Fold this sequence. Notes:
The structure is a single chain. The protein has two domains: 61-156, Hemocyanin, N-terminal domain (Up-down Bundle), CATH 1.20.1370; 177-350, Class I glutamine amidotransferase (GATase) domain (Rossmann fold), CATH 3.40.50. Helices cover 36% and strands 8% of the residues. It is built from 13 helices and eight strands. Strands 5-2-1-6-7-8 form a six-stranded parallel sheet, sandwiched between helices.
Amino acid sequence: MHNNQRDGHMGQTINPGRVAYFPNALAGNLPAQARPRGFVSYPEQMRDTKRRARAGSFGDHYGQAKLFWNSMSPVEREHITKSWAFELSMCQERSVRLRILEHLDKINEVLASQVAIALGEPPRVKTTAQPGGAQDSAQEVALLTGATSRTTASGKLQKARGLSQLEGQPQSAKSRKVAVLAAPGVNADQVAALLKTLKAAGATGEVVGTRLGKLENGVEATKTLSNTDPVLYDAVFIPGGAKAVQALIARPEAHNFVVETYRHAKPIGSLDEGAELISASPIGKVLRALGGKDTDGNGQPKAPVTNLAQVAGVNWMSDASAALARLGILVPARSGNQAALQQFMQALAHHRFWGRPQA
């Protein structure tokens, strides 16, 4: 049996051409439908003519897509928008991109407009937002919040519980995995306390060091900054220890851990000198501004950190720490280590902190 399903199970034929669907404009509508030569039911005469027919609901090609879109949280809608923009930007044929935009417009015109802007095409609606690129855009998320579509699918249900991966999900630290950045000279007591707290909550911590092996008494690195990646973890934590933090600041991979964790909206925790790595990283200027620490004693803007000599001890005030904590960034204030660890565990249970300023 020959059909257009070229990637079916056990298929061995190597089909030439760019498309495997009908209708298409790239291969002159080949492959094509069999039409009269294809499978048809025998028109046996009974009380009426026997025929193959579908219910009228089969003509609703966009109802389920609208229901899925309506059920997403604003952040998920933005991620869907970014995904469409990315995938369509890889398509070399503008005519194909435009046809897909026509389909998206039938699902939601704001979705289609935001994708169109990213592809250099005119939007379908007047009110738009500048896409945020690889990072989330608060303006685009706000625009997509009210971007819903009326649908007749599933008994005219407009939103379905269980489709969103964010809304209504339990908040727990159980099964979360935390990267603990460390180097020789790390505060071993803080590492031990953190690992114990994680284990008690059903989470795990993995020491990521500047090298493998023993770093301090009771602290052994099982991964290195070079052989693992921040996307594999649910959060990052930097314990204190002046010597260790200086070593981490000198490693670009450690800065990448902080930046990527920040951009993925995951929790970032620290104790004592560990905050210096956060401050020295490329997101340090943004965080200092959020915490009210981006000016010097004369009210003048601080220059970006360019070398280790400029990384002074970070002394965050309680109000500054609270401002950053609301974004899932835990820096030491005037609280004990155990209280700071419990605050980090709460952030780990929350999992993602959307709406962070771009950095």
